[in-house]
Amino acid sequence: MDQPYEKQNPAFYAVIALLVFMSVGPVLLMFVNSFKLDVDIISGASGLFFLPTIQNYETALCDVLPYEPDHIDFCSLKFGGALINSLIIALISTVLTLVIGCMGAYALVRFRFMGRDTVSLTTLMVRMVPPAVLLVPVFGLWNNEFCLDRDGLIGGTIRETFGGRGDVCLAGTHTGIIVIYVAMNLPFVIWILQSFIVQVPRSLEEAARVDGAGPFQVFFLVVLPLIKPGLAAAAIFTFRIAWNEYLLASALSDRNTKTVPILIVNNMSEFNVEWGVIMATGMLLAIPPIIFTLFASRQIITGMTAGAVKG
Amino acid sequence: MVDMALSSAAERAAKRRKAQRLNRLTPYMFMAPAAVIMAIALLYPLAYMIWGSFRAWDPSQTIGEAEFVGLKNYVTLWDDPNFRESLSVTLRFAFFVVTFELVIGVGLALLLDRNIRGMSMLRTLFILPMMIAPVVVGLMWRYMYHPTVGTFNRTLEGLGLPTVDWLGQHALMSVIIADIWQWTPFIFILSLAALQSLPRSALEAAKIDGATTWQQIWYIKLPLMMPVLIVTGLLRLIDAFKVLEVILVMTEGGPGLSTEILALRISRTATEFRELGVAAAMSNYLLLLLLALTLGMFAFTRWQEVRAAKVRISAEEDT
Lengths: 311, 319
Description:
The structure holds two protein chains of two kinds.
Chain A: H1 10-33, H2 38-43, H3 55-60, H4 79-110, H5 116-126, H6 131-145, E1 147-148, H7 153-162, E2 168-169, H8 174-197, H9 202-210, H10 215-226, H11 228-244, H12 247-252, H13 260-268, H14 275-309
Chain B: H1 2-52, E1 55-56, E2 67-68, H2 72-79, H3 81-112, H4 119-131, H5 134-145, H6 151-158, H7 171-196, H8 200-208, H9 213-240, H10 245-250, H11 262-271, H12 276-318
Helix pairs in contact in B: 2-12, 3-7, 3-9, 4-7, 7-9, 9-12, 11-12
């Protein structure tokens, strides 16, 4: 944009300031409150004047801190473990979705094969399936059908190693949650990456093929580097969904595989909400998406327009 | 000699066939992982759910043990006043949310479509709300709506105004406001992108002809943006039926049934009332609704493409 910036009248800037305040205000409020003691939050008289404390964060992360904070006797909130679960699940499912999704998108764009239209249409249609609809069948399947018999070879080995009584099922494992997240995100990732792969010039791929590269080499060494912006956008969206999702994780996880959103919801439904600690946990959950937004907003916006306008 | 020549020719032919077969298999090899995962974890569960919706199924049974009851679940639901209430709450929520977000989002896009310093920074700040976890959004708003310590009521008190029972009497409105806060930026960003890709020539022609700002918006910008707006609106509408966590955290569907949208009712029927068959039937109703919307969107984009092609052809004929 070489055009000079236009001068606007002051009222315009006032409107913009108000809008920024409205969109960022609630987040800032949570941020500030997460450093307040519950007493300060409830009395409220102090407003911005209070002594910031990291007590809330210490309470939240008590199970992973190397030292024991003075103000808590018993570490009831296993937040650190949940944070680790969330990280494992979100990262692995993002990587898997991206790899599998890119390959699928590439096949749909570059090859004519039997069943291509069916696959393409199915992908589009399942994009609209809400997680709530998947809740019932996934709960049933993951608990009853996708199991390894405890008397079988693999199931028996797992049972002997980890203990327990019944069959080994997908429910309650990281894998179970990862599988459903990958499946849920695939249609969107395939859709968004198609529009980026189309733009890769065919001649580049043909040149590589003439030089003797196989189809997988062409894909990984020529196509992938060229669609990096698309990959970044897709990665952010996938990570965001896997990181933020609550419903399916709550149905599939057990005591040891709880993710952060489940913990927050469980603590919110108690009668006496400890606002300070809850806000601290909320802040910890919100930090990764906030960082992505600040550093990759361009990719996010590109991805959003590619995913929606063409949709 | 002849034998050797024959055998090497045969070898070469076999090699070529193998290469060809690899070629023909390549797309399937690329597609296979995605197809397998989606078949196992999306399509099979959906089929399983449709099958289960015809059964009196409770979580302790496997689906094979559950009794087949035909359409009973669907009929029961249709006669259930709670389900109807929940459906009506869902429809009202979706309608208001999408309408307000479209009006505000497009309005802001029209207002901010100017060449100003720091526009990219502004856009970054505006997309912040929709990147944050719905659970956290629910938590922030529940705090702000809190009857005594909440920000809104405290501000109202400070100004000497009567306080409002946000999550009590006006629960649905409060939930709608929170969703508008989170998702208006989506429409704003997309309509801003649409605005900035409008043909400059049309706008300049209008300006030269002396059209006022309002006339430009009403007769040129909005009609040209319409295709994008309709698709965006439909996408938002589909997403509005998926909302669950924000409402769960803010009100848990209450007070009464006033904010119990379908997604929430499905999850409660499955986990609290333990009636998986009924929950599956309810999911199918929701799925049918969304299917209709999605098909509508496809039909619309298709029609748009056909019309654009026609316009192009007639333009070519004219020249």
